[in-house]
Structure formats: C-alpha cells, structure tokens
Amino acid sequence: MTKQEILDTIELRQSTLKTWLNCAMMYKFRHIDKLEPSFRYPGTVHGSALHLVLAWLHEGQWKGDLRALYTKALNYQLYASEEEHIPVRWKGDQETEIEKLKLNAVEILENYRSKDYNRDALVLFAEVQFRVNILSYSFTGTIDQVRKNPDGTVELLDFKSSQMRPNYYAIPNDIQLSLYAYALKYGQLLVDGIWVKPNMLLDSVGIYFLRGHEIYKRKVPGKEVGDEKGSPFIRTTKTIQDLRAFRTEIRHQLSAMVKPWYYPNTASGACSYCSYAEHCIARNDTIPEKQADEAQLLLAELNMA
Ligand code: SF4
Hints:
By secondary structure, this protein is of the alpha+beta class. The protein has helices at 3-9, 14-22, 24-32, 42-61, 66-79, 94-113, 116-119, 175-186, 240-257, 277-282, 289-301, and strands spanning 122-134, 137-148, 154-160, 188-191, 194-196, 204-209, 233-236. Among the domains are: 3-35 and 257-301, no CATH class; 36-114, no CATH class.
C-alpha cells in the first residue's frame, strides 16, 4: 500500500492514535485491514455505559435512578450500539456478571454524585464530537467532558474505568489528552448539530479515574471499610508551547503510521488479552500472501482450516 492509499483508508480518530501507540500490528488490523475484534470485554462495555450515564446526569437527570439509568445505558451498549454484533466475553454466567456490573456502577455513580465538586461543576460539553486539522490532516474524536469548576477554572476530563489506576507520570505525555486540548484551542465541536469554534486554552486537563469512587469492602492499611479508594483526579496542564510540541509529535507519529510495515508489540504483555490475537496468530510475515491463501484453500478442502 502506498502512503496515500493508507491515508485514504485510515480515519484519524483519537482511537487510531491510541491503537497505533499500543501496537502497530493491531493498528494495521483495525484501521487499515478494517478487521473487527473477535470479542469485547465486559469492562469495556461497562466503561462505555458509565460514560453515557455521566453525560445524562449533567444533562438534567442529576437526581435520576442510577440503577435504571445504568441499565438503559448498558442495554444500549450491549444490544443497540455500533458494536452490538461483536460478542462479549463474559467470565461466567452472563446474568450474574451483569448484576455485578450494575452494583459496581451504582457504587461509582452514587459517590460521583455525592461530591460537591461534581454537583456544582458547570458542564460545558459532554460526550462532544470534535474535528481539528493538524498539518493539513483532519483528526476527529469525542471529548468526554469539559467543565467549569466552582473556582472558575475550566478543565477537560477523560473518564477512565480501567481496573488499574493510570500512571500519574504518564499523564503529561498522554497523546490523547494533548489531542483534545489541541482541538479545543484550534478545532471545532459539534454542538446541537452546529460546528462551533470554542478557542479555549484550558486551565487543566486530566483523567477522572472512576474506580477511585469504589469503596473498600475490607480493611486495608490506612483505610477503613467503606472508605473510597482515592481521589479520582490525575491532572496536568497544556500550555501553548505544549500544544506546539504536540503538533511536532503528531508529524513524527504520522510519518511512521503511513509506512507499510508494522511490528507486533509482543513486549508489552498486551497480547495475552488482545482481542486481535486470533488475527495475529494467523499472520505469517515470512510467507507471501498469495501462497498463504492457497495453503488456506487446500486446508479448507481437507476440512483442516
Ligand atoms: S496479539 Fe499482540 S502483537 Fe498481535 S495485535 Fe494483539 S497486541 Fe499486537
């Protein structure tokens, strides 16, 4: 594939960059070959459902029934979203697993709602689409939340619900956060069907780690039963100089992304839980594609493929 063909094939979304940085091979499968993952993890579906409920809370349903809101959001993610046809890899009995997700969601959302800093924040944008040109390439994506805090500061938050707390020291270099901050300064947001230019330089950007609102069920050193696991905020700042440095970083990443060779990231340990592992195992870079296809056909005839 030529550089132009690759550029014509990929969509420059925040998820494209994220996948590229995680594993170049996965980036090829997902964004160039347009292959779908073999499965979805319940945790990913849970995170997407929580995002929806958080947007609804700030859109006028602050006092809503959390279990009912979460159930509606989860059902949407499971049965009506763009990915509804991709099976979910449940660990055990589906109903039991879903009940656990609901209990966890209510615990997180109740504690989110109990905080003055959330109740009193003025949410300017939630789950809002953006588009921004960088070096004549158009990047698109979705920003979780931009809020005006009671002290007047404006901050961008990316909600995370992974099991592990994101690394504090990695946040200043998080390329997705830089892309969001860049889009708010130089790009456009889709608000009520109209593209607007917010031209915002934020006071802070950061991760809102939702599992910080989970509570300890057992006593651990320094914490009592019922205590929350910790502050959900992991913040950094993005100055104009940082945004310029980000533009340079994008140039470097893009020049590598459009070269037609891709290296599996087997060093990170991500392969063991990768939803593209089946595609990855099937690849064989040392055998030409035509020869591999012929071998597959022969195996199929022998009922061995
Ligand atoms: S299995 Fe490993 S190398 Fe292959 S796509 Fe997934 S993360 Fe990348």
